[in-house]
């Protein structure tokens, strides 16, 4: 009994509450989304099942302390790369092409599994290990040591990034980059190195964007890029001119969210038909049926979640733990900002789900794996009065 009380006293119940509320929001939105004639599967039951699996994943990770997480980080990273490589070489019967991408394994009796969702968490562990070990070995910080750290981060990130782009999966590739950028900023690398790189990247991105908008024929002539491949950008900037093609989802999403007004139409009272509303466009369902109030509650829960992880990273004095928290924050922040941003027209549409809300077993398991890391940090570190040690 005493051991059970000791276990429960070290569980982060604030995080449990936030995840429970996100689970309820997910179940309500998915229940409503699957009522359209487009779907025959019961996504709600499947989502509940994946949440139960996710709880098991959290319980598995919570037992691992920082030393154990460091030991498994490279095994997990290597396993993730192996799965991504298999996606390229396996036959189409096992790795079918969906929407022009080969990103999923088909496993009989289970369904589809997307390895890149797990690779995000494996990458966070690997980068946290690389950065913490680098600082342990290089106590004297110089431009040379910082530059070497940047190269190591780039190599570790570049391997999964190239494999993911082979699928191709631009959305997940952007998440991988956001994780890398977030961890570079917290790694302590000198701004004398980062500023020129950031400036150069901004110039390149601006130049590409300029040619996409004003000189697409140049890209087609010299780089072999087809004009139709920029359809998502054009439909994002002018969705109603592309309402019958690339802009269809965005125009319907804007109509759904706008028609929800302040309080929404009520659960099951949806009027706007929107394909794939149970996954990438789940926020449109929330906006229409629960209105501004319901949407604000969901966004507030994500703010609370990110704040809580930030506080966790600041409380612990273990640098490895801090880097893990930054990686998880970077991943979740990009997911939330991109998904909600694309449903309201602030950002181009990419196939990025809304964490813990959108339907998807791989996505939910990957996110629960990340939460397992946060639970582990909360479970294993201790704060002592008059001391900074763990």
From TrEMBL:
Record's subcellular location: Membrane
UniProt KW NADP keyword: no
Organism superkingdom: Bacteria
TM regions (residue ranges): 12-31, 43-62, 74-91, 103-127, 147-164, 170-186, 193-213, 290-308, 320-337, 357-377
GO biological processes: cell division; cell wall organization; peptidoglycan biosynthetic process; regulation of cell shape
Pfam families xref list: FTSW_RODA_SPOVE
Membrane topology annotation: Multi-pass membrane protein
GO molecular function: glycosyltransferase activity; lipid-linked peptidoglycan transporter activity
Keywords tagged on the record: Cell membrane, Cell shape, Cell wall biogenesis/degradation, Glycosyltransferase, Membrane, Peptidoglycan synthesis, Transferase, Transmembrane, Transmembrane helix
Keyword Cell division: no
Any one cellular-component term (Gene Ontology): plasma membrane
NCBIfam families for the chain: rodA_shape
Protein name: Rod shape-determining protein RodA
Organism listed in the record: Peribacillus muralis
Lineage: Bacteria, Bacillati, Bacillota, Bacilli, Bacillales
């Amino acid at each position: 009994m005493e051991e059970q009380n000791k276990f429960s006293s070290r569980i982060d119940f604030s995080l449990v509450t936030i995840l429970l509320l996100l689970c309820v929001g997910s179940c309500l939105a998915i229940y409503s989304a699957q009522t359209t004639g487009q779907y025959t599967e019961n996504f709600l039951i499947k989502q509940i099942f994946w949440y139960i699996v996710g709880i098991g994943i959290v319980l598995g990770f919570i037992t691992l302390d920082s030393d154990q997480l460091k030991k498994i980080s490279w095994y997990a990273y290597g396993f993730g790369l192996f799965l991504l490589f298999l996606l390229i070489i396996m036959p189409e019967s096992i790795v079918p092409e969906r929407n022009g991408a080969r990103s999923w394994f088909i496993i009989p009796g289970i369904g589809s599994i997307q390895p890149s969702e797990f690779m995000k968490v494996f990458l966070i562990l690997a980068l946290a290990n690389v950065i913490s070990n680098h600082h342990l070995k290089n106590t004297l910080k110089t431009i040379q040591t910082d530059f070497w750290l940047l190269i190591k981060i780039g190599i570790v990130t570049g391997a999964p990034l190239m494999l993911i782009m082979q699928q191709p999966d631009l959305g997940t590739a952007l998440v991988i980059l956001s994780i890398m950028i977030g961890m570079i900023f917290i790694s302590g690398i000198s701004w004398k190195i980062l500023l020129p790189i950031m400036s150069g990247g901004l110039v390149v991105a601006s130049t590409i964007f300029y040619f996409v908008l004003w000189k697409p024929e140049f890209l087609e002539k010299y780089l072999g890029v087809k004009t139709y491949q920029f359809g998502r950008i054009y439909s994002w900037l002018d969705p109603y001119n592309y309402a019958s093609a690339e802009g269809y989802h965005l125009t319907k999403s804007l109509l759904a969210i706008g028609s929800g007004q302040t309080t929404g139409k009520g659960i099951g009272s949806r009027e706007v038909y929107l394909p794939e509303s149970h996954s990438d466009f789940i926020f449109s369902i929330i906006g229409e049926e629960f209105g501004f109030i319901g949407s604000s509650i969901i966004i507030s829960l994500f703010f609370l979640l990110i704040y809580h992880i930030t506080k966790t990273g600041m409380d612990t004095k273990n640098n490895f733990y801090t880097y893990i928290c930054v990686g998880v924050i970077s991943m979740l922040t990009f997911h939330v900002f991109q998904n909600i941003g694309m449903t309201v027209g602030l950002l181009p549409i990419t196939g990025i789900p809304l964490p813990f809300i959108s339907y998807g077993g791989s996505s939910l398991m990957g996110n629960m794996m990340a939460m397992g890391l946060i639970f582990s940090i909360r479970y294993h570190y201790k704060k002592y009065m008059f001391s900074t040690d763990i």
